[in-house]
Structures are given as C-alpha cells and as structure tokens.
From TrEMBL:
Residues 438-457 have a biased composition (Polar residues). InterPro entries: DDH_dom, DHH_sf, SSDNA_exonuclease_RecJ. Residues 1-20, 416-457 are annotated as: Disordered. It holds the Pfam family DHH. Residues 68-203 form the DDH domain. PANTHER family: SINGLE-STRANDED-DNA-SPECIFIC EXONUCLEASE RECJ. This is DDH domain-containing protein. It comes from the Eukaryota. Transmembrane segments: none annotated. Residues 416-434 have a biased composition (Basic and acidic residues).
Length: 457
C-alpha cells in the first residue's frame, strides 16, 4: 500500500495542467479619448456640432412649426426621441405640433415610402435619431431644417444633403444616441433633469448593457440610480426592446410606453410590452441552440435560423460570449425567415477577440467589406443595407442569392465538410480491411482441428 507521504510526493511531482488565460475585456469607459489643441477631451461629440444642435433645437421650439421626430425602434433610439420630445415641449413647443414616424417592418427612413410619408406630414423641422446615416438626397423636397443625432459609423459626408449633424462615433468612448441627446438637451432648461436623466440611462443600458460603469467621461448618474434603481431600468429595457423584435413589430406600443412614462417602473407594468417580451423569449429559446458553422479561415462563426421575430441580434450576442478559439473574431446570426426573399444578419465581436488591439482589433464593417473586396459586381448587388451599424456590432439585409454568394466567399461549412469527408474516408478504409482473420479464437480453433486430425491418423 502506498504511504501518504509517497502519494503527496507523487502529486507534487506530477505536472499541473496549464490554466487558460482569462479573457479580460477592457472597460468601455476607459477607451482612449481624443483631445483638442488645448488638451481638452472631445466628448461625447465635437463642441461645434453640439452647440449647433442646441441652436437648432431652441430655434425649433421658438418657431412653433410642424416638427417630425424619426427615432430608431430600440431602447436607445426611443429614449433619445423621448428626451428630445420632452425638451421641445419644455421649451414651449406644443406637443400637438410634434409627430413621430416609424417605418414598417423591414424598411428604413431612407426608403421611398418614408420619403412619401414625410412629404405628407410636411414638417418644417426633422430630427433623425439613432438611425445610422447615409449620403442621400434630402429626406423631403419641401423646405425644412434637418438635424441628425447619431453614434453609428458613417463614411465621410455620409448624411442627407443639407442636414446638420452631431455624431459621437469619432469621439471614444462612443456615447449612445440617448446619452448624446441628453448631453445636448440637459443645459437648455433647468426642469429637464428629472424628466430625461432616467431616459438617458434607459437608452445607454439598452445599447451598452447593464454592467456599463458610469465613470468619467460618462456623467455622474448616482442621484438618478438612487431614484430609479438599475433593476427597474434594466427590466424596462427588455420590455421596450420587445415590440420591435416581435413578429407583429408594434413599435408604436413601445414608443407610447416610453413617451408617457414618468419612470422606468411605470414601463414594467405595460401589458402589451410583456406579451411581446414573452413571444420574443420563446422564439429565442427555440432558435438559440442552432449549431454554428465556420468560415474556411476560422474567423467567422455562422448560425442560421428562420424566425419572423427579430431575434438574430440576440442570438449573435449570446453566442459571442460562449464560442472560443484562437482564430475566431466574429459571431454571425442569419435569419432566413424575417422578411420574404431576404436574409437579415447580425454580427458581434466574439468575446475572446474583444481585447485585441492595434492592427489585430476586430472591425466588423471592415471585415465584411473585405470579404467582397475586388468583387464590385456583388458588392453593388448587396446594396446600401450591407455592413451597416457599428464596427463592433454590424450586419445587413441582403437578397437570398447574394447571401449564398457571400457564404461561398467566406467558405462557410468547408471546415465541417472536410471533417465529414475525412470521417467517410476512414470508414471506407475500415470496410476495405474487413474483419481481422488472425484472432486468438481462430488460432485455437485451428489448433484443435489439427490435433483432432492427428489423433485419427
């Protein structure tokens, strides 16, 4: 029997397994900021843009003319829209002069149908919030003043012709649209703090998650969270995001809930939002176990689902925190059932790749554009809805034919195909060799027969 001392010695001498290094994702608020000539931090956007936006908002409130707010459909967009709405009414603009418009499912504010709807409303002032931006003709041919407030990536001059804009994209850590709108509006009236501070938190948690640290350069929101606990804000985020993800796409329900709420707690009791949230949870659970396939170079993992609900961003986000490999950069979820004849896809940076910096830093938009680089004909057919959003969270809407071509360029499934071919090759080799004939049973059986024969002779 081995003595305890011997066992301890053997255990001490046995090699220990190397522990995998823990992936440390840098805190969002610690992203290096840019500075002006005097060394002052430029945040959340350039000062000239912020001051220009404030002047337009004050001018709009004083003009007393028809105003159109075009907020995006998620918690960040709806919160920024509500912040602006409360600001304009607090500054004296009658709410009866303010309209909002949400494009139907699968459409955007840059479509012809939206242009027609805007022309019908005939607004003197148009505010575009959290919609991303493109270089396009004016949103309407009628005389108007247009202000874009955004934080998505936009190419040089990528805004509607004649529009003023303020963008947070180039001023890290990139503020959400709600946070940017809050920063613009807060100084315009002393009564705004209680009305819009919790909306700022709602939109920011909606885009950046509930673990975001409210530390400089982010504003101090301690008093806001004392009055409105983070749990109630996070619960409200999930409910506000539910209608735009549901198959029915009742974004108006979410907007009415946010604009009429005096606190996040009042949102959490909304029956319509709860029903939409239940549907989204069930669909997410149904589709989330889809096995991924990988690109030929191993940098992209693709999950393909089919759902009338907009759950592909949720599934991409969820899997991005679980999949790990040395090569993996992007987790992509493609939804082939959201819109007829189209494929909607969302991309997220894999958690295992988020800490990469410098030349290795993952830029999804650049990666997607790089896949079709040199194939100008396909890039043209992919359209303006390809590779939109953020460098860390992008996606697109493309035709089915174009999607299959894009998958072929990525080499999706080639790794799995090669493994399957290798398995089949090995199985065929086994079949060719057949069962081994020189077994012990055969040996003794043969020996027994020989002995019996010799006895007879």
């Amino acid at each position: 029997m081995m003595s305890p001392m011997k066992r301890k010695a053997d255990m001490a001498m046995s090699p220990q397994k190397n522990k995998k290094a823990k992936i440390t994702v840098p805190e969002y608020h610690l992203a290096p900021s840019i500075q002006d000539e005097s060394g002052e931090i430029i945040w959340p956007a350039r000062k000239t843009q912020i001051e220009g936006a404030r002047e337009i908002i004050k001018e709009c409130a004083q003009a007393g003319k028809t105003t159109l707010i075009l907020p995006d459909k998620d918690a960040d967009g709806l919160s920024s829209g509500a912040i602006l709405h409360h600001t304009l009414t607090t500054l004296g603009l009658p709410s009866s002069l303010i309209s909002t418009y949400f494009p139907p499912k699968g459409s955007s504010i840059y479509d012809e149908d939206t242009s027609a709807a805007i022309t019908t409303i005939c607004p003197s002032y148009i505010f575009v919030l959290d919609q991303g931006s493109r270089k396009i003709p004016p949103l309407t041919t009628e005389p108007h003043t247009c202000l874009v407030i955004d934080h998505h990536f936009a190419s040089e001059g990528g805004f509607p012709d004649g529009a003023d804009y303020v963008t947070a994209h180039d001023c890290p850590p990139v503020a959400t649209s709600a946070l940017l709108t809050y920063h613009i509006c807060l100084p315009l009236h002393p009564d705004l703090d209680d009305k819009i501070s919790w909306l700022c938190a709602l939109g920011t948690h909606g885009d950046l998650g509930s673990t975001i640290k409210w530390q400089p350069p982010f504003p101090d929101m301690a008093s806001t969270f004392k009055q409105h606990p983070k749990k109630s804000i996070n619960d409200a985020v999930a409910l506000v995001n539910a209608p735009r993800r549901s198959a029915a796409y009742n974004v108006q329900d979410a907007w009415e809930s946010v604009i009429n709420a005096s606190s996040p707690a009042s949102i959490t009791t909304n029956t319509k939002l709860k029903q939409a949230s239940s549907e989204v949870r069930q669909e997410t659970e149904r589709c989330t176990h889809t096995p991924p396939k990988f690109s030929a170079d191993g940098t992209i993992a693709l999950l393909t689902i089919s759902s009338a609900a907009q759950i592909h961003p949720v599934i991409a986000t969820r899997w991005s925190g679980h999949l790990k490999s040395a090569k993996l950069e992007i987790v992509m979820c493609a939804n082939e059932g959201y819109l007829p004849d189209l494929v909607n896809f969302s991309c997220r940076v894999a958690k295992c790749a988020r800490a990469r910096d410098g030349a290795e830093k993952v830029d999804i938009i650049q990666k997607l554009e790089g896949i079709v680089e040199g194939n100008t004909e396909l890039r043209g057919r992919l359209g303006e809805s390809f590779a939109r959003g953020h460098k860390e969270a992008s996606g697109g809407i493309v035709g089915r034919k174009e999607w299959e071509e894009l998958k072929a360029l990525m080499g999706i499934g080639e790794v799995e195909k090669k493994k399957q071919e290798e398995r089949e090759r090995r199985e065929k080799e086994k079949e060719k060799k057949g069962v081994q004939k020189n077994t012990l049973a055969n040996y003794f059986s043969t020996g027994s027969k020989n002995a019996s024969a010799s006895t007879k002779t």
